[in-house]
Amino acid sequence: MIELNAATKRYGTLAAVDNVSFSVKAGEYFALLGPNGAGKTTIVKMLLDFTQPTSGSLSVNGLPSTHAASRTAVGYLAENYHIPPYLSGWQYLQRCAELLDISRSDAMDQCRRIVELIGMQGREYTKVNTYSKGMIQRFGLGAALIGNPKLLILDEPTAGLDPIGIREIRQLLESLKDQGMTIFLNSHLLSEVEKICDNAAIINRGSLLVKDVISALVKDGDTLEDVFVRFVKG
Amino acid sequence: MPKALPPIIRIAKYTLTDEVRQKSFVIMFVICAIFVFLIRSCYQGNYMVNGQVLDAGTIIRVVSKVTFHVIAAGVMLITALLSMRVFRRDRDDGMQSCILSKPIARWQYVAGKILGLWALSIIFMFILHSIVFIITSINLKVVMPEYLIASLLCSFNLLFVVVAVLLLSLLMPDIVAFLCVMGIGIVGFVADGIFAISHSQMAQAMIQQPGSQSDLTWWKFVYYLWPKLSGTQQFASSFIGSEGFHGFGSIYPLINILIYGLILGTLLFRRFRNEDII
Q: The whole model's pTM is what?
């Protein structure tokens, strides 16, 4: 589903991503972990063709990430999500559905279902400029779910959410896992990742340190946090 | 190609509706409409030239033509103002990443933006010209459809402005991009004015030095290659009244602007292809 082959991104002399190779299979629940500035978001941006790799290649859905068609059936939630303040959450979801060429009646049904799923009933028709950061994040996740994507790319999906919101999002992601969706998750919240993900990769300073099944990474008595600190601090 | 069209049209629609939602746009439109309505009083005055009173028909035609030019130039300015912030606002509002995370190519996104801004500015100018057209028709009791044709011809200038400002806004701060395009327009207008004066009978009589002609060749070359915003406007306004065509010379500004639009458009698509999306 996702494949990185010696992907490198340089900004001048700085290597934001350095010769990273790994793959994520269909139905996998994958977490990309790393400290701030490790290159996680750059990898996501390269997968979505938001930025081009200096060298190496990336493919999504079996197509090079530079092809627009590789983003078919892909949902994306950015870190610090933004929605035009003059739209309502409902209008935004409708726009996302229209961009995916979903018929009007299907779009209405999907948007209604998603509003319920993200727990925003009653607030969907108010303007986005009245929403909290957490509410915007929920609508962002809702927008990513429009069109029933097969692959979800989530960059810090719980950023700005309170503990209850984090728990709700985790439960929502778990339910998506049951539907066979592939999830690529960038997160700092290691305890959440440990609960919901099957596989994880740790990167630091642009280099891949390890990629394995979480159960193999976390030995008895350890937590994912211990493993993460051990790898990052060397 | 037919599959590529729906996203372009949708992005154009969002661009248009998002601009209309902006308070600044509404204020600009109301000010322009009031200005055009105020010009109405010019039609009722008594004008004398060389001691002779001008007839109502001449007055109306002259005022309509002057208004045509003022509106066309004013809308170019407004179009540049609207275009300069489009990419930045889309980036800040998250719309750019939202659109481009879907199976939509970058060229489709840019084409949608150009189309939306162009359509909006054409509608804006056409409404203002239509107001003048209606006032003129009522006062002159003659319908001048050529006035509206001229308005549509001027829309190629707006396409040039949209593409040029969008391209420059990727390379420099928005306000500098706006000023650069306005500078190109102003230089063109001034150069056309000087060119027209230098070709008047009086100026021709004054210039009686045959040697000076060769010194002007380089400037003439630059003059003809410069984006002909003013020339296109003149060409369009030649439809109003009875001036008519004057061969290839009169259509050249339109061709010049279309070629510039094509070149700048190509550069814009190429530049945006390498742009990092935030």
A: 0.91
